[in-house]
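SEQUENCE WITH STRUCTURE:
===
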Amino acid sequence: MTRLLLIFSFVIALSLNSRAQVTLNGVTLPAELQINKQKLVLNGAGIRSKLFFKLYTIGLYLPAKSSDGAALLNANKMMVVRFEITSDMINSDNMSEAINEGFDSSTKGNTSAIRTRIDKMLKTFSAEEIKIGDVFQIVYVPDLGTEIYKNAVLKSTIEGQDFKKALFGIWISDNPVNSSLRKELLGL
């Protein structure tokens, strides 16, 4: 009987732990987000580093956990990346450069079909200075587009599932900006 209670307690602890928030690099990512009356769960989280700088902490949120990056990119389902700036090495100029590099990587250089929308996104990020502690939330809403929030304020909406695929592909495509970060976001 004692053994059965221990096993039951362990299973309960595991299920509670799977819903727990995650803290990385001093940033706490909630276990769930509620957006447009839809619950999204934290699929995975990681730190985007370059050289030895920890630039931002990021989490990927989905309706249900998945490790299939290609299926997620092709699906017309809500998904969110939420990231918090953790380094003063990030500013509006180098964020724009990083966005361009990310799109080039995720599309293998084929950005012409979405170039005007990439430029709209770049204007969104350059409209105000970026500083440590800023929280960006990129939300793909089916049949609407990709909403970009800075510190919980909607800054722009960019249409198209093709844009969503390229944008989220920066982190979870087969050609991401950082392969170890991709694995962390997809729980691989």
User: Anything to note?
Assistant: The chain is about 35% helix and 30% strand.
